[in-house]
């Protein structure tokens, strides 16, 4: 799960997906990262921690990391929260196999950045939760 700062959107997607993976007894590895490096080592934004906690997901132990091209080898699927991040990730891919792993998390839409808008954390959480549920169903069917 990849966003810009790895402190708002992608930690939420990481935490929700990890919770669903655990609930479904899947052995998938879920991680998140940011295409920017300003917040590396920091916990998620307190507003993200708070909204996740309200809905039953603990993201407080996550620490931000910078997206690395090693992830193309480590992961089967790299999901970008918006088109800018998608472009930045694709610019690091070395071949079609790597490019094929990169998709928009919401397929055709972007997850809005809630960083400058407190009111957006809850709707962002809800769209992430809904998409993670769909992803689990799609990916389990495919596997
Ligand atoms: P995120 O939100 O990409 O969802 O983690 C942001 C967090 C921090 C910044 C921008 C977006 N920032 O500019 O520091």
Secondary structure topology:
Elements lengths: L1 E2 L5 H15 L9 E2 L11 H9 L16 H4 L3 E3 L2 H8 L5 H5 L1 E3 L16 H22 L1
Parallel strand pairs: 1-2, 3-4
Helix pairs in contact: 1-6
The structure holds 4-nitrophenyl phosphate.
4-nitrophenyl phosphate binds next to loops.
What does this structure look like?
With 143 residues, this protein is mainly alpha-helical. The protein contains 6 helices and 4 strands; from the N terminus they run E-H-E-H-H-E-H-H-E-H. The strands form 2 sheets. The chain has a two-stranded parallel ribbon. It has a two-stranded parallel sheet with strand order 3-4. Helix 1 (9-23) crosses helix 6 (121-142). The longest helix is centred in the C-terminal third of the chain and has 22 residues, at 121-142. It is globular.
What is the strand content? 5-15%
Order of helices and strands: EHEHHEHHEH
Low-confidence stretches: none
Helix content: 40-55%
Rg result: 14 Å
Strand order of the largest sheet: 1-2
Structural class: mainly alpha
Number of helical segments with 4 or more residues = 6
Principal-axis shape: globular
* Ends distance: 19 Å
Question: What is the total tally of β strands?
Answer: 4
Nearest-integer average pLDDT: 97
- Spell out which ligands are present: 4-nitrophenyl phosphate
Characterize the main sheet. Answer: 2 strands, parallel
């Amino acid at each position: 799960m990849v966003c810009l700062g790895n402190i708002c959107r992608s930690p939420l997607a990481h935490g929700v997906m990890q919770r669903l993976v655990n609930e479904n007894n899947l052995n998938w590895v879920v991680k998140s990262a940011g295409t920017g490096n300003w917040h590396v080592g920091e916990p998620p934004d307190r507003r993200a921690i708070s909204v996740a906690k309200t809905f039953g997901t603990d993201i407080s132990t996550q620490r931000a990391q910078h997206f690395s091209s090693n992830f193309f080898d480590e992961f089967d699927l790299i999901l970008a929260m918006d088109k800018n991040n998608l472009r930045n990730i694709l610019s690091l891919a070395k071949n079609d196999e790597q490019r094929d792993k990169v998709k928009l998390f919401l397929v055709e839409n972007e997850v809005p950045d809630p960083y400058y808008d407190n009111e957006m954390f809850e709707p962002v959480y809800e769209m992430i939760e809904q998409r993670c549920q769909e992803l689990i169903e799609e990916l389990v069917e495919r596997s």
